[in-house]
Amino acid sequence: MTALRPYQLEVVERVEVLLDTTARPLIVAPTGSGKTVIAAELINRVVAKGGRVLVVAHRREIIRQTADKLIDAGLTPGIVLAGCEKELRTHAPVQVAGILTLNARAIRSNRMPMPAATVVIIDEAHHARAHTYQAVIDAYPDALIIGLTATPVRGDGRGLGNIFDQIIETPQVPDLIPPGFLVDCAVYAPVSKDIAKGVRISKGDFAQEDLGKHMNRPELVGAIVPHWLRHANNERTVCFASSVDHSIAIVDQFVQAGVIAEHLDGKTPKQDRDAILSRLAAGATKVVSNFGVLTEGWDCPAASVCILARPTKQPGLFRQMVGRILRPDAATGKTRALLLDHAGATWWHGFITDRMGWTLHVDKRAQNVTEKARTARGEKLRECPQCSAVMITPPCSQCGWKPAPRRGDDREYVDEELGLVVNGQVRRGELTRDEQFQFYRELRGYAAQRGYKDGWVFYKCREKGFTPPWDWKNSSPAQPSPAVAAWVRSRNIAFAKARGAS
């Protein structure tokens, strides 16, 4: 049986005093902090006192993980799940059930009775407002209802106080990094927060069909692989795409670049999915791109890089996706994680290592407490001009860049970076829109001379600090000036140095 960490034991003891009551505590524990270990210890204690437990979850992987942890803890649960009839142990004191299977068999039909339970545990409890969960909760009016989640919010960020009556928190992500329970996460966010601007909003987030089409554009897909090659050091990577087609397009780009990559989605057969994820864990596959599969209930400590290519307005979904890479891994010596944010989500939601202020209030939203404090101090997230890592104040934690004063010019600049010549002057800092347009046209001219694709031009504009509008593609290329050509050479030199240093 896994030995509990001090904070896990504290949570168990706080919940244990609520046994034999009809309380509804919500346990909040970051991804990778050991929710299943906490649940297994709680269940063991309930059973030792003669109680019966029902655990419900919405994904097969979560159900299997929970059952395995219980077996490690000395219990053999019954499993209520389609395809697992051989494990249907109706007399076992612990039942682990798929929420859809339980509803179909016991609530919408009389094929089986509801399992007897004094305690009901809802895993991934941020889904508990769904009618399938409500039907189960209503069936146990005298039981202790316990929720487990890393993100105790609805899709719009509001609380779950209409279901649960108290929050019991473990330490948060920034507390779990120093003792080595989680790893720190560097962030590169090469797109603006408005990457999904114009996409229709539905139910508080970007409409799925529209988002998939919007993100699956050559210039956006084409920018992902160069960024990965520059920063990821060939480490095992999970990518979250905006649609099935988008995920497949991303994988195609990696394969064309000579990187072993695979795709999976909800229709991938279980046997194939298990094989794909096993190859990722072993390092035979470097990148697995998915749509709608790996956001919850998937553990792979060896994966250290997350490519976020799915914009979202939901803080919970953002933290669920990025949280997948925060587990340490002794086998690979993993000590840090890396987020390549091609969705602009960091500009919306802050760092995954920020402290959150969770609430049960149904009319209030969770707050990024760290971001709120930064704003009060007049600080904001920004991109390092040299390596493009997201930082707050110099020096950059990734490359050490800091601004150097220039005689008669107190603006920040990057060593070895040449600015755009405007009216005879070397122009550094932010460009006007007209200057951006001229810079873009000259880059297109440079690209045409060397056979580069439009994705290269888009990426270089991002390095210069702006995102070219879609309709600029209709403009004619311009002869690249010496200043623009020199700027491109300087970025190539910086890139080569960065790769050499790594």
How would you describe the overall organization of this protein?
The structure is a single chain. This protein has 502 residues and is an alpha/beta fold. The chain has three domains: 6-171, P-loop containing nucleotide triphosphate hydrolases (Rossmann fold, 3-Layer(aba) Sandwich), CATH 3.40.50; 184-391, P-loop containing nucleotide triphosphate hydrolases (Rossmann fold); 420-501, no CATH class. Helices cover 35% and strands 16% of the residues. The chain has helices at 6-16, 35-48, 60-72, 99-107, 131-138, 173-176, 208-215, 218-221, 224-231, 244-256, 270-282, 315-322, 345-349, 369-376, 433-450, 454-464, 482-501; strands spanning 25-28, 53-57, 78-80, 94-98, 119-123, 144-149, 166-169, 184-188, 201-202, 205-206, 237-240, 261-265, 287-291, 305-308, 336-341, 356-357, 367-368, 382-383, 390-391, 420-422, 425-427. A seven-stranded parallel sheet has the order 3-4-2-5-6-1-7. The chain has a six-stranded parallel sheet with strand order 8-15-14-11-13-12, with helices on both faces. A two-stranded antiparallel ribbon has the order 9-10. Helix 2 crosses helix 3 (60-72) and helix 15 (433-450) runs antiparallel to helix 16 (454-464). The radius of gyration is 25 Å and the shape is elongated. The two termini are 40 Å apart. Residues 407-428 have low confidence and may be disordered.
